[in-house]
Amino acid sequence: QVQLVESGGGLVQPGGSLRLSCAASGSIFSINAMGWYRQAPGKERELVAAITSGGSTNYADSVKGRFTISRDNAKNTVYLQMNSLKPEDTAVYYCNAAVVEDPLWPKNEYSYWGQGTQVTVSS
């Protein structure tokens, strides 16, 4: 089993910044892609940003230039630096990791989710 624990959410004024962290622990051999998703009330969960084990990134158009995803492979941790926050960024943010648990089966990866952390952007 693998656990993802997120931290760093909260209430911030428009234009402010927050940094989310997500640490993975448990039965981990390696982690392929890691990412951040968000879900606002009444909306579907959407991809915010993702990063491969090699450091390649992609972002939703709505956050390009404002958010930065990074990871520390030694700590099995992914970060999301969020700047110039807008009210429309308000959502529950979820961390996701594609984990390889058994080195004998490196192509078998399992998707794990964190419990979510609330980000509220409001004056």
Q: Note the gap between the termini.
A: 40 Å
> Describe the biggest sheet?
7 strands, mixed
Mean pLDDT value: 96
Structural class: mainly beta
* Rg calc: 14 Å
Count every helix, treating DSSP H or I runs of 4 or more residues as helices: 0
Number of strand elements: 11
The sequence of SSEs as H and E is EEEEEEEEEEE
User: Beta-sheet strand percentage?
Assistant: over 45%
User: How much helical structure, as a percent, in the residues?
Assistant: under 10%
Q: Which regions are unreliable across 5 or more consecutive residues at pLDDT < 50?
A: none
Form type: elongated
What does the model show?
This protein has 123 residues and is mostly beta strands. The protein is 0% helix and 56% strand. Strands 2, 4, 5, 6, 9, 10 and 11 form a seven-stranded mixed sheet that branches. β7 (67-72) and β8 form a beta hairpin. It is elongated.
Give the helix/strand layout.
Blueprint lengths: L1 E6 L2 E3 L5 E9 L3 E10 L6 E6 L5 E3 L7 E6 L4 E6 L8 E10 L8 E5 L3 E5 L2
Parallel strand pairs: 2-11
Antiparallel strand pairs: 1-3, 3-8, 4-5, 4-9, 5-6, 7-8, 9-10, 9-11
Key descriptive features of the protein:
mainly beta; seven-stranded mixed beta sheet; 0% helix
